[in-house]
Amino acid sequence: MAEVVRMPKMSDTMTEGVLAKWHVKVGDKVKSGDVLAEVETDKATMDLESYEEGTLLHIGVEEGKGVPIDAIIAVIGKEGEDFQAAIDAAGGAGKAEGEKPKAENTEAPKAEDKKEEAPAQGGGLSEEELAAKGVTVIRMPLLSDTMTEGVIAEWHKKVGDKVKDDDVLADVETDKATMEVMGYATGTLLHIGVEKGSAAKVNGIIAIVGPEGTDISGILSAGDAPAKKAESTEAKTEAPKSTADASTAAAPVAESTSDSRVKASPLAKKIAKDKGIDLAQVSGSAEGGRIIKKDIENFKPAAAPAKAESSSAPAEKAAPAPQFIGEEKFTEKPVSQMRKVIAKRLSESLFTAPHFYLTMAIDMDKAIEARARINEYAPSKVSFNDLVLKATAIALKQHPIVNSSWLGDKIRYNEHVNIGVAVAVEDGLLVPVVRFADGKSLTHISAEVKDFAQKAKAKKLQPADWEGSTFTISNLGMFGIDEFTAIINSPDSCILAVGGISQVPVVKNGAVVPGNVMKVTLSCDHRTVDGASGAAFLQTLKALLEEPVRLLA
Region Disordered: which residues (predicted)? Predict the structure, then answer.
């Protein structure tokens, strides 16, 4: 009988894998041990081997697609065998599951039809019919990219008032500013949907303008439904919006300005800008001297007041401000498996573990001298990161609380020291583990870290290389970073953020002299480590690095 091939779990944090490349195709003969495909996990790209012999009958996942763990990705069996029977028997992507979306799709339109029919039960005219009769629905406009609702700060009109297309109906308070709402409609204010001081959701009905006596019960009973429908239609067609006849769209808005600035409607500003007209030369005919569309259309340069004649000396005309027209561009890429896991695990750590941070400055003068002497004889060059790693391992043996792990209902105090070293790669971050670091020499640590870095960048790390850390070090000193805070790599209790060595003035024996100082910041999980415990660990680390001969004892 044919056998299904499922997506295996290749690491402890893996939830899904991406088929990077298939090495076989349907109809090929495969043997046990043959590489079927390359799978991209959250940590590396790994080979997927076959444990069956036979013919590849079916490939269920295309290259570049991701599938969850245990999903069926292929079927192997005898040539000509029915692979669908094997899929059905395994409970995979059978026909029954494929039929579910169809059932859902057939039901969905019915539900939508019912929702769309609801407004007609209001007994009045629909919004479309009202628009044909000259009725304009004023909705709460989207005045900023973060706005979800607006508060009516002031109504300038009341029900029954006559309004013109350039009248300001209300002031709306958003999350950013208080702005004016203009209806761009002429008629009678038939309805105010939101009282002063109350909030309305974006696209909620706030007013209706139209001929006096018009029946608006249909649109009131429909609520916000037509607006949402119109919004979705606009999103699909991407039709340009017209401010002149936007009877069902959000109301145009003009920013409130102080008396010292020119008052003009947004439409007037746009037309003036297109025609190159200076608004300061235009007299407004609306309330409070506001400039509206017809003022711009009727403006003639000859009719502008001659300000220069009233002065004894002709004033110099200000040079127009230079304008630069740019183009907004961007590129979107699908999130890689590694980036998905980084986002998930670090978000869980930061928002679950109560972090606190301890920073300490360390005098690195003697460490610099010791490193130079060691590298004269060492077969593998020792870096400052290797010195920090070795000192950290020794300090952890003296402070087991910092070397602990939070396991939910218990705390594990690790007697071994496995230090994860954060390594930056093209797609994100990997943390290979130097095991039993306290017992290894500096040259051994140096060689191991270099090997891990090469494997990480080549995506050749195996699960055993990144699992089982009890503490983590993240070093950005080589990038010129003085200090920073890092997010704990759960379930570890702490992570050490290492900055660069800076030459600064320091006080030694009562005199100010040049010094080499490195800052480190310990991020601690307060569920397992308290401030005093973290401080004691840093004091030990500082003493070891300031007297590096103790690392060899």
Answer: 91-125, 227-265
Order of all β-strands in the sheet with 494-508: 355-363, 511-525, 494-508, 471-475, 419-421, 433-434
- Please pick, among 12, 161, 278, 530, the residue that the annotation labels catalytic: 530
DSSP strand pairing (511-525 vs 494-508): antiparallel
Task: Read off φ and ψ for residue 195, nearest 5 degrees.
Answer: -75, 160
- The C-alpha atoms of residue 104 and residue 353 are separated, in whole angstroms, by 41
Element (H, E) at 87: helix 83-89
Question: What Cα–Cα distance (Å) separates residue 104 from each residue in 15, 101, 311, 352?
Answer: 27, 5, 78, 37
Active site residue 530: yes
Mutual angle of helices 384-398 and 442-457, in 10-degree steps: 110
Q: How confident is the model at residue 42 (pLDDT cuts 50, 70, 90)?
A: confident
- pLDDT tens by residue, 301-329: 754 444 444 444 555 667 778 878 888 89
Q: At 98, which helix (H) or strand (E)?
A: helix 95-117
Q: Which residues contact 212 (CB under 8 A, 6 or more apart)?
A: 187, 188, 190
Q: What is the pLDDT of residue 302?
A: 57
Contacts of 64 (CB under 8 A, 6+ apart): 18, 19, 20
pLDDT of residue 239: 39
Using DSSP, state whether 523 is helix, strand or coil: strand
Dist CA 2 CA 243 (whole Å): 64
- Predicted confidence at residue 244, as pLDDT, reads 37
The DSSP call for residue 304 is S
Evaluate whether 349 touches 440 at the Cβ level (below 8 Å). no
Looking at the chain, the number of H-run helices and the number of E-run strands are 13, 27
Catalytic residue among 12, 47, 70, 526: 526
Nearest to 549, CA basis, from 440, 442, 398: 442
Give 223's pLDDT tier (boundaries 50, 70, 90): low
Contact 393, 438 (CB under 8 A): yes
Predicted confidence band at 537 (pLDDT cuts at 50, 70, 90)?
very high
Closest alpha carbon to 37 in 28, 54, 24, 27? 24
- The question of whether 365 is a catalytic residue gets the answer no
Nearest-5° Cα angle at 254, 253 to 258: 150
Q: What average pLDDT does range 377-383 have in this prediction? A: 88
Q: What pTM did the predictor assign? A: 0.56
Q: Is 531 helix (H, G, I), strand (E, B) or coil?
A: helix
Quote the tokens at residue 464. Answer: 């055993």
Give the model confidence (pLDDT) of 417-461 as tens digits: 999 999 988 878 889 999 999 999 999 999 999 999 998 888 888
pLDDT band at 258 (very low <50, low <70, confident <90, very high): very low
Question: Cα(first)–Cα(last) distance of the chain, in Å?
Answer: 64
pLDDT at position 431 is: 92
- Check whether 116 has a pLDDT greater than 80: no
Which amino acid is residue 195, in one-letter code? E
Report d(CA 149, CA 172) in Å as an integer: 10
